[in-house]
Write a structure and sequence with these properties.
The protein is of the alpha+beta class. About 50% of the residues lie in helices and about 15% in strands. The protein contains two helices and four strands, in the order H-H-E-E-E-E. Helix 1 runs antiparallel to helix 2. The two termini are about 30 Å apart.
């Protein structure tokens, strides 16, 4: 006999995997952009005044490095993004808060029309902790 939440959890897992795939695609696109920026900086390198080009190369190289690490980590957890679920029922809430525990942190922006009155974007977190 399957758990009563099995279908809901299976749907949640598939949505999380699809979200990770979306993040992976975006990160791969950013990596190409960083590579292009580095190439452009080398092409535009002026030996007399090259500080801007060097800065551009260094910044894009660092972003490329960070993006590569993010890609590698997401690829390793793509099929198993989390390993536990905790339902926390506070005394003030009518419904329990659901937390997923895993090896990465995935955050989604809440649309502006659902944000606080100050217009600050809040983040809805699928809470996943590193190992």
């Amino acid at each position: 006999m399957k758990h009563p939440d099995y279908k809901q959890e299976l749907q949640r897992l598939e949505e999380t995997k699809a979200y990770i795939e979306k993040i992976l695609n975006a990160a791969e696109g950013r990596q190409e952009s960083y590579k292009d920026n580095i190439k452009d900086a080398f092409v535009n390198l002026d030996h007399l005044d090259s500080s801007l080009s060097y800065i551009n190369i260094l910044i894009n190289a660092k972003f490329f490095e960070m993006s590569s690490a993010e890609l590698d980590h997401l690829k390793t957890v793509k099929t198993k993004p989390y390993f536990a679920r905790i339902d926390f029922q506070s005394e003030q809430a009518s419904e329990p808060a659901v937390f997923y525990i895993g090896k990465v942190s995935l955050l989604k922006k809440i649309p502006e029309n659902q944000s606080s009155s100050t217009g600050v974007h809040r983040l809805q977190a699928s809470i996943m902790m590193g190992d």
